[in-house]
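Q: Got a minute? One more chain.
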Amino acid sequence: MAFTAPSHLGGSLLRTAHNSVASSYRQPQACIHTRKLRSPSSSRLPAAFCSTRKALKSRVSALQVVSGNVQKVSQEQLEKELADRQVPLIIDFYATWCGPCVLLAKELEQVATELGDKIKVLKIDTDENPELSSQLQIQGLPTMVFIGMDPSKPALRTEGMYNATVIKEIIANELSVAMPSAAP
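A: Always. Here it is, folded:
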């Protein structure tokens, strides 16, 4: 069964960080493209570089943060979560080899812990879900999509690394989620 992107994830209803809505937020600190390197046999890249990249990929995947507050989902699980959502969603499109994605995972974990049941954070590995990534035109990593409860309000899409403070500002301003008051 092919994935059909909900109207609030694609087309004219998808706002990006380049639009005026998100221009008040600090621009991403890091952004990389998802093009894969060719294998050593079909590449002009030195074999040592490719083996180093494989070792880095395995090390980084061990560092990936996915806990009870942040859930890794597949394409089918995402469809179900979108249909049954009771709270706003943050969807993080990442890859295990992506350094900024690992840093963002820690920031998202902090946000999910602080906001508890007010939001739900989902992660989708673009290498495991290439069809979905292609349909949603995920070209830079990390990419986050913020989906509120109002179906008439378009989703907000950002690319790059954001810290927890900026993510909470986006949640408060764009998703209308009340932030917990700071402890005295």
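A: The two ends are 52 Å apart (CA to CA).
Q: Perfect, thanks.
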